[in-house]
C-alpha cells in the first residue's frame, strides 16, 4: 500500500476538521474531492481528543470508499454518532485535536489460537475480532497509549466486540491484523504531524 506523504497527511486532517466544523455549523456534508491517493479506496478512522481524553472515534475498517469520502464520513460520525459520547458542539472544536488513521486492509491471522499473541506486534498492528454477529476493532495506537502487551491487546479487542475477554483463544473466533498511518494535530487547528507508534511501543 502506498503511504501518504506528510503533505497528504496534513490534507487528510484538515479535510476531517473542515467536514466536522461545516456539518456542526450548517448541517451540510462537504463535497470536497481531492486527487491522487485520495481517489483510492482506503479504510480510515477519525479520532477526536479533548484535553488528552478520547472524545469520539469512528471509521471504516475496509476500503469501501474513496479516501476523501471516507475521511469526511468518518469525521462527521466521530463527532456526532459515537454512542459512547454526546455529540460534539461546534464551540468544542477549539479544544479538540483531530487525528486521522489510514488503514491497510485487514488480514486474517492463520495461526492456531494459542499462537495469536506471538503473531502480532504492538505498535505496528491494529486488531479486529469477529465472531458471528459480533465484531470489535482497536487501532494500533490504542495498545501503545494504554501500555498493553499482545495478550492484553487481544483481550481488550474481544471486550470491544462484546465477547468474553479470552475469546481470542477460541476456535471459530477470527482475528485480523491491520496497520495504520497516523496523522494528528499537535494542538487544535495546529501543526499536523505523523505519529510513528513503533518508536513508542513497549
UniProtKB/TrEMBL annotation:
Instruction: Name all AMMECR1 domain ranges.
Output: 7-194
Q: Which Pfam families match?
A: AMMECR1
Entry-linked InterPro entries:
AMMECR1, AMMECR1_dom_sf, AMMECR1_domain, AMMECR1_N, AmmeMemoSam_A, Uncharacterised_MJ0810
The protein, known as: Protein GAH_00551
The organism is: Geoglobus ahangari
Amino acid at each position: 500500500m502506498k503511504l501518504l506523504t506528510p503533505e497528504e497527511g496534513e490534507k487528510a486532517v484538515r479535510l476531517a476538521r473542515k467536514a466536522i466544523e461545516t456539518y456542526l455549523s450548517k448541517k451540510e456534508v462537504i463535497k470536497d474531492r481531492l486527487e491522487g491517493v485520495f481517489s483510492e479506496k482506503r479504510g480510515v478512522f477519525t479520532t477526536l481528543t479533548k484535553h488528552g481524553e478520547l472524545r469520539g472515534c469512528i471509521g471504516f475498517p475496509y476500503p469501501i470508499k474513496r479516501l476523501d469520502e471516507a475521511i469526511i464520513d468518518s469525521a462527521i460520525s466521530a463527532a456526532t454518532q459515537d454512542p459512547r459520547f454526546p455529540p460534539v458542539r461546534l464551540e468544542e472544536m477549539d479544544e479538540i485535536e483531530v487525528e486521522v488513521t489510514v488503514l491497510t486492509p485487514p488480514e486474517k491471522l492463520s495461526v492456531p489460537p494459542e499462537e495469536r499473541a506471538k503473531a502480532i506486534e504492538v505498535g505496528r498492528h491494529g486488531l479486529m475480532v469477529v465472531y458471528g454477529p459480533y465484531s470489535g476493532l482497536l487501532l494500533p495506537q490504542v495498545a501503545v497509549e494504554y501500555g498493553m502487551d499482545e495478550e492484553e491487546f487481544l483481550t481488550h479487542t474481544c471486550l470491544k466486540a462484546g465477547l468474553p475477554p479470552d475469546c481470542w483463544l477460541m476456535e471459530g473466533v477470527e482475528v485480523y491484523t491491520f496497520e495504520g498511518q497516523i496523522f494528528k494535530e499537535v494542538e487544535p487547528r495546529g501543526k499536523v504531524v505523523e505519529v510513528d507508534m513503533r518508536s513508542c511501543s513497549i
